[in-house]
Amino acid sequence: VQLQASGGGLVQAGGSLRLSCAASGRSFSNYAMGWFRQAPGKERAIVATINWTGGSTYYVDSVKGRFTISKDNAKNTVYLQMNSLKPEDTAVYYCAADSRPYGSSWPSSSRFGSWGQGTLVTVSS
After folding, report:
1. In whole angstroms, what is the distance from residue 68 CA to residue 113 CA?
2. Quick one: pLDDT at residue 116?
3. Which are the contacts of 7, defined by CB distance < 8 A and separation ≥ 6?
4. Which residue in 34, 28, 11, 13 sits closest to 80, CA to CA?
5. Is it the case that residue 82 has pLDDT exceeding 80?
6. Which of 6, 12, 21, 100 is the most buried (most CB within 10 A)?
């Protein structure tokens, strides 16, 4: 089972990026997914989660109204659309899959057992 995150890069404040996380090895269509980030000198933290159907989402307060998480089950891919980026969004972003199927969007880090490698997002001021 592999999760491959991509789409990071350098962007100016106010700009947009879309992160993608493609899964291989098995289908994640029945699994909740999440995006996390780790800024320099800080612990990894939840950014957004989406339940297994894609119908329910959670966002940390700092990204509400700016970020959108979605999943395309046919492509076995989860996305994070990031708009109005701020320098404080600079971090390595990770995607993760729930350990069990049919999960909710409940933002508990411990439930996520499959992790992708990170993709670096740098927002310049």
Report:
1. 22
2. 86
3. 17, 18, 19, 20, 119
4. 34
5. yes
6. 21
Structure tokens at 117: 């490698």
| Mean pLDDT value of segment 21-40 | 92
- Sign of the Cα pseudo-torsion (82, 19, 1, 116, in order): negative
Q: How would you list the strands of the sheet with 77-82, edge to edge?
A: 2-6, 17-24, 77-82, 67-72
Query: Which one, of 49, 59, 51, lies nearest residue 89 by Cα?
Result: 59
Rounded to whole angstroms, the Cα distance separating 116 from 104 reads 20
Q: Which residues of the chain form beta strands (DSSP E)?
A: 2-6, 9-12, 17-24, 33-38, 45-50, 57-59, 67-72, 77-82, 91-98, 112-115, 119-124
